[in-house]
Amino acid sequence: MEHVIEMLGIRKEFGNFVANNNITLQLKKGEIHALLGENGAGKSTLMNVLFGLYQPEGGEIRVRGKAVKITNPNVANDLGIGMVHQHFMLVENFTVTENIILGSEPTKMGVINIKNAAKKVQALSEKYGLDVDPYAKIEDITVGMQQRVEILKTLYRGAEILIFDEPTASLTPQEITELIQIMRRLIAEGKSIILITHKLKEIMEVSDRVTIIRKGEGIGTVITAETNPNQLAEMMVGRQVEFKTEKTEAKPTDEVLTIEKLVVTDYRNIDKVKGLNLKVRKGEIVGIAGIDGNGQSELIEAITGLRKVKSGHVKLNGTDITNMKPRKITEEGVGHIPQDRHKHGLVLDFPIGHNIALQTYYQSPIAKGFVMDYKKVSEKARQIIKEYDVRTGNGEMTPARALSGGNQQKAIIGREIDRNPDLLIAALPTRGLDVGAIEFIHSRLIEQRDKGKAVLLISFELDEVMNVSDRIAVIYDGQIVDELNPKETTEQELGLLMAGQSSKNNMNDAKEGND
Amino acid sequence: MSNRVINILVPIISIIIGLIVGAIVMVVSGYDPVQGYSALWTGIFGDSYSIGNTIRQITPYILAGLAVAFAFRTGLFNIGVEGQLILGWLAAAWVGYAFELPKIIHLPLALLAAAAAGALWAFIAGFLKAKFKVHEVIATIMLNYTALYIANAVIKKLSDGSFKTERIHDSASLRSPFLRELTDNSSLHYGIIVALLMVVVMWFILEKTTRGYELKAVGFNKHAADYAGMNVNKNIILAMTISGMFAGLGGAMEALGTFGNASIKAGFTGIGFDGIAVALLGANTPLGVVFGASLFGSLKYGALNMPNAAGIPEEIVSIIIALIIFFVASGYIIRVALQKLSKKKEGQ
Which CATH architecture has domain A255-346+419-498? Predict the structure, then answer.
């Protein structure tokens, strides 16, 4: 079959650092070709070379058999290469059409012809089954829809080869399913796709072939149908990876967290948690499974004091902590790995060391009265960086912003666990991380459980909930609709419950705990 | 080229380019740049009298710069330094003449009054931001006008319709015979010591205290600060208040050191606004502010000598001074140019 793109022996250096060394990627016409690698393996660098943002130091790029020099993104566009970025590049208060034509506005004597453009957008949207309203404003549409606008943008500019950079990172499970259908449709219409990802499940489901890179080196290309997730993970990480997290039977004892008839509203004052009951005991991990937006965020914020409780109670070790100040709740023994590590978990402009002191900066030994001992901050930071294998460029003084997502998350987890909390709340702790980091974080959560701590895990990933939890509580529309034993349930059953369908062994809403 | 070399080269090249462009302006308008710049130099460093007055000019710039820089470091933009400074000026002058106390009490009391007046005025903006989400830029701009006209009205009232208050008592003055003799009768006063002390205070608060850590955290990311159990609103108000305190002390320098009274002003002093440039020139660090203020203060004072000694009209002088500061502030352009240059060399 014909190769539409060939990147042969690509080498890219930044100073002394070799980001890509002798990497070869050949994209056939009409295939979905996955590019797999851990965070920082050099996937983005390689794609930026293809997109003309970087010039390679060695190797050759051929498009449809012809050697080309892609000196800037415009050249890439002209060659029919389009990129769907991970972080969408859209103007929030513009319409879909306005965003799509941005930079190549069709004008007549200086006047934009929006109507024609909108018609063209509509036609493209229908052709590829994207279902996008050309006149909707970006700020009013969902993340999944915004991504389709990004896809339309490339199609509008005549892209034949689409690069998807971590397209599922911010999507819900449904949106992921829809995206996969869209990708298949694109292929059916004769496009070719490069899919950058570190999610093995998606690769197995959607791709035809996989090229794996590790630490900047090309490891090889395999046919998806002839491989399996274990082999892929091993090629990516360079060692065997355990998917089934090893753990012993849980031995839960006393109740640590007790939530009774909790009602919490969101910022618009609409009830999002509606009379929720939940218990978490020492020595168990309770996983909350649910689709994003069913009250998970409000629940966590209410427990940790970041959001006011409208009615009901939250108790920790028997003490009522409802509506206490966040600091008081933290001091009562709650550790919190927040859902959004950039918004809540870190001060990105602080060095990572100062971030590790975020919960303890005012306590002895770091604080002596009102004076802060930054030597002690550094000592503690170095200890946690070592214990939790946080890879930093420049030790504890590296800006938090400069760390990869996985390492930022490890630092947060280290900070929270180091305070030895009775209850550890982990909200989407592995979002956007690669398998190595996920494995590490899961084993840390289980370690806390084995130490007799209570762990509350909130996740949108069914695999994670099934694997790590000892008990699964399904949240739907602000309530725990069912509690299940992960060993006795299936993804199908969970999926139905999460979507609001009742299961055959439905329990009474008011009755909680698994006895 | 290493980063360190670039860091040193940038300000030097910036000043040189500024001087060259200033020279071109002089040549084009028919004046001798050599004569002009030597007049500027003499105006700044020529004799002990000039040096004394240059330092006196630098003093309020340091405090105004600290006020702006402190706010910047804690995520706030205090454009209200001007108004806070005017009220500090008035408060210091009033305490200075209205009381008769021993120096050891009177001078600190007058300084404290100025700090409190500036702090109070900034507190209003901080409070409005924390409680009602009023943007501090709008609040402080408006508060500048209210401060200016309140001060004018109060001065009129205090002086029974005159345009300036009584002179402060010697017990509240920052001036000293020793400094005057040392600098050939210049108006140098002990304010510079207050200003440098405040440089240390700012550094200590931000870099050494738990409060400083909180203020910076709130400034960078208030969501994370909230998550960590910090009281975000309280810290916003406090940051603004401390910033206003520095500004108020800047006013005290004029009241207790340079002028010895407070007079009705037709318009803003400009020191508060120049403080923004000083803070930015100094990259918002305490020591940087000292350098920024020194550049600003010496150019401003030294330039006064250019019309006399070189016959260059004041307008041209102002253009030249503004150009020099402009190029120093556009150090970024020069940095980028240097980096490109060094890249090209590596590429060869």
Answer: 3-Layer(aba) Sandwich (3.40)
